[in-house]
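Hi Y.,

Following your request, here is the sequence exactly as I used it, all 459 residues.
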Amino acid sequence: MRRSLLAAAAAIALTGTATLAIAQEKQFDAKLAGHAILPANTIIKAPENAPDHLQTSGKFSTPDRKRATELGSVPGKDGVRLTGLSLPFDGQPVQGFSGIKNAGDGSFWTLSDNGFGNKLNSTDAALMIHRIKPDWSTGAVERLETIFLTDPDRKAPFPIVLEGSDTRFLTGGDFDVESIQPVADGFWIGDEFGPYLLKFDTEGRLTDVVETVVDGNPVKSPDHPTLTLQANPSLPMPKFNVKRSGGYEGLAQSKDGTKLYAMLEGALFKEDGKMEHAAEQKDGERALRVIEFDVANKAWTGRSWLYPLSAEGGDAIGDFNMIDDTTALVIERDQGAGTADKACADPKNPAPDCFAMPAKFKRIYKIEMTDANAGGAVRKVGYIDLLKISDPDNKKRQGGGDGFYDMPFNTIENVDLVDDTHIVVGDDNNLPFSAGRALDKADDNEFVLLDVGDFLKAK
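Below is the corresponding structure, written out as tokens. Let me know if you'd prefer a different format.
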């Protein structure tokens, strides 16, 4: 009986602790102040000096990876649902924005994702940086400039897809660019394949490739170029310690420009490589590393923080930018897409007229990173819910409902500070594979201006 009572007391104590942890995640209101849309089917031509290989894109997105030679012959799908757009494209899609930074003049720097979802099918997807300008009054998004990324000085420590070409354009088969920080002499970009920290000059030429080190140990994903399968199946597999697509989804910069803070999308795994309980944790929840980088020395400082994913449903992060010296914005999300009112009756057998796994958890957290909590966990100050954005002035141009706007997208990968009371948020539409706004239509690139004054002031 005593053992039972002690067990019951322990269970109550644990439940109380869990409840307290959840209660500490304070929600703040967000109001829609502007909404602008770049249509999904926005295609541009590759530069004239690019190889013929880049004049079309998506040629290797067939299920068997065989080359598709006829334009528009491979239908885009989100699971079993057709999205209305087909590959290959005649040109390069301006799509999949996976990081954003306020340029200070009403425009924003952003970058297209690696291409069509992975290293193998994105070898004809050109890597690009864009400067865009949403017009919150008309809802249009103007593309002011595009910079194509190249490696003319052979800085990549491996053969790139276009190794033998004169111009050496970089593709989604080389790097998976996911986060961006513009600086005076170019751009720092976070990659998921290595994961690497990349530096480009103002013309988009690769100048530095920095390997990732945490606690003195190299960090490698299964897409790291040094990893190869053994010739003999009886020999051990090569070791890696972060999952595919677990590299730098977030990259923030200190306000004085001396430090970068790179956040992994996936948790680090222990050296034993066991999948069960092997991912790095904090207080029982998976936790992601935030790693400090010294810009002047181009070296990791050895300092890091842990970002614990929420027990309420967080599965990955989408973007990361500093507010001031010690606080930052982080997008945290689940893997769902679509609205619950159109959910499939049987998620294990989804149909074309329903969402297999509707979005339930799409948030932006305000976090605090200080000298005091370095080596431990960041402090989550509070969050806003991107599925419940107030819209009393009917600013939305699509989505939502009476008095509210929502972002039920699988991947929301853009957030940055605009001013003391506003932030900008945008989705990554994974063209042409994501359809979360409608059942049968590829998601557009939606950008919203949110009034979140109380959230930004929260301590």
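Confidence is low (pLDDT under 50) at residues 1-22.

Thanks again,
Q.
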